[in-house]
Write a structure and sequence with these properties.
Blueprint: H1 2-20, E1 29-33, H2 42-55, E2 60-64, H3 70-76, E3 87-89, H4 95-103, E4 110-114, H5 123-132, E5 135-140, H6 144-159, E6 164-171, H7 176-188, E7 196-197, H8 200-207, H9 221-235
Parallel strand pairs: 1-4, 1-5, 2-3, 2-4, 5-6, 6-7
The structure holds adenosine-5'-triphosphate and magnesium ion (MG).
Length: 243
Amino acid sequence: MKATTRSRKAARVKMRDIAASPSKLARPKILVCSSGKGGSGKTCLTRNLAVFAAHAGLRVATIDLDPQRGLTNWYAVRPDEAVNIPNVAIPLSRLQEAMHQAEALGKLDLLVIDTPPGVDASPVEMRHLLLLADFVLVPTGQGAGDLRSVVEWMAFIRREQRPSAFVLNLTMRSAGSFDRAKQRLIEAGDLCPFDIRLYESIRVSDEIGLGVAEMKGANGLSDVRGVFTFAMHALGMKVSVDV
Ligand SMILES: Nc1ncnc2c1ncn2[C@@H]1O[C@H](COP(=O)(O)OP(=O)(O)OP(=O)(O)O)[C@@H](O)[C@H]1O
Ligand SMILES: [Mg+2]
């Protein structure tokens, strides 16, 4: 028992050293965007956080585990001159193959992983993915229907003892449901202190293959920056977020 405690302590110390310099990471940190609800912003979060990481100087890649390939379609319209972010597109049912392909990309600091809306088809792989994750972000809208399914999803993640947090997305802060949603989520798990408001520029950035960090004067930049800062902190990565 004592030995276990000592080795855990040693691992924590080692992790702190590594976190001080992302370029020395032995293996990439794995950030999974996952939610029990379709359309909650998993893909939006994945691409915007990856763009932020790339501009912050991290070696970042993404994995698109959704057979619908929303993330991969975004790459297809990404301008040639935009910063390169490698992407692996393999469905969740072939998780192991996806991870091998990501490994073949070379040394990375961060892997951001997008997941399909329903995991009923591949529950075993989803559980494996959660076990690989260093942090899980669970985006959700502020409506009652959204909350019901993400609260259930969070219970599953917490049963697996994975570090995780909700992120409110597509928000309308002036609506009464916003505060009610925050209250409901705080009762069910950790909540990212930054939400991402519903902005047309976020939708437009999706259509033109950019992240909000790459669109001059885009609304939503400070919201995404807040979530990125939170995620980096949760992963123990010290990066400058002056994007
Ligand atoms: N904060 C936001 N403001 C405006 N539009 C947004 C925002 N977040 C997401 N969207 C848009 O909402 C739609 C759904 O978002 P997204 O595709 O990221 O959800 P998802 O959870 O990946 O969906 P699915 O479960 O179908 O994969 C997209 O058109 C996206 O561009
Ligand atoms: Mg998606």
